[in-house]
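queue> holo job accepted (guanosine-5'-monophosphate)
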Amino acid sequence: MSDGGQVTNPAPTIKRRGLMLVLSSPSGAGKTTISRALLEQDSNIFMSVSATTRPKRPGEVDGKDYIFVGEDEFQSMIDRGELLEHARVFGHMYGTPRAKVLDALNRGIDVLFDIDWQGTQQLGNDGSTEADLVTVFILPPNSKELENRLHRRARDPEEVVRHRMEKAADEMSHYREYSYIIINDDIDESVGEVQSILRAERLRRERQLGLHEFVQGLHDGA
Ligand code: 5GP
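queue> job finished
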């Protein structure tokens, strides 16, 4: 290739290890909307599909929204070491299947997680996942908005909604355990903020494999 008489080399392709992007928030803070937008706009990240013992809601698809299993099957998954983390949330078990996630990371593909603070803590304390973890906590702009969003959803029975509002305060108290905090006042802005985090985190030295050889090549005039 010629550029003003100068010979230019093609841009190098440095391999990268995938990262684990965790988005947590109290229900109703807009996490699902942000996740969807992110997945639509970025082809190098996919959503980890959790296993759960909670009943399927109308419109949910087994294997897409969750892998719906019974208590016994969930316990077997734990016993077989198939879950990266698991926790009881709102009276039901939720867990992250291990195999697909580790495979993606090894292939340089990023994985998005919608898990609660308990699962995030487990991933952060596990030597095999700690370095790959990028944690983001999403807060609602104010309590009225949180209440409105929970009511607008109305996919759950009224008492579940009430229970979730009580739990929201407890969940929000864990914001300190996350690296990044987004106050979701405007969806588009929040999506842009998550994308900025992702772009920067992808450039972290530790994730870029083969840098030593690349720099060595620069020295050697490659
Ligand atoms: P929902 O039942 O509304 O889909 O989810 C309830 C809560 O469970 C949410 O806070 C969500 O982040 C959390 N959750 C979903 N999947 C997992 C998982 O695999 N592990 C953990 N620890 N939490 C999860």
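queue> Helices lie at 31-41, 71-79, 98-106, 117-125, 143-153, 158-172, 187-202, 211-219.
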